[in-house]
Design a protein that fits this description.
- With 120 residues, this protein is an all-alpha fold.
- The chain has one domain.
- Helix content is 59%, strand content 0%.
- It has five helices and no strands.
Length: 120
């Protein structure tokens, strides 16, 4: 029962998708070896539950599939998403770092538009 609870409570935390799935698969295999196998569908759901929020859209898509994903397919989908997410995050960060800073114009206060009402 402790193995099953460990799988239910498994969270990705700071781990990569690969590390997280390896831990989940190890618990899945240990449960089977102990004579307490769980279904592939339950395994998928436990993995989905433990992933970071950035996987929410992908998980929504994968949950709607007719059949649960085998480990290799699940890993492939999650690694692709992780790669795309990291790439887009890095490119946005790089763009912010390398964005040119425009100089602040030195405009004398006397040339600024006044908010005074026109005289009639």
């Amino acid at each position: 029962m402790q193995l099953h609870g460990s799988l239910q409570n498994l969270r990705q935390g700071d781990e990569s998708v690969t590390q997280f799935l390896q831990k989940a698969k190890a618990l899945f295999d240990e449960l089977a070896a102990a004579g307490r196998p769980i279904s592939l569908e339950d395994f998928n759901l436990y993995v989905f539950h433990g992933l970071h929020g950035e996987f929410k859209d992908l998980v929504t898509s994968l949950v709607t599939k007719a059949e649960p994903l085998p480990y290799a397919d699940l890993l492939s989908h999650l690694l692709t998403h992780e790669f795309i997410h990291k790439s887009s995050h890095l490119s946005m960060r790089s763009a912010a770092i390398h964005a040119p800073l425009l100089p602040t114009p030195n405009i004398p206060p006397s040339t600024l538009i006044s908010h005074r009402q026109p005289v009639a």
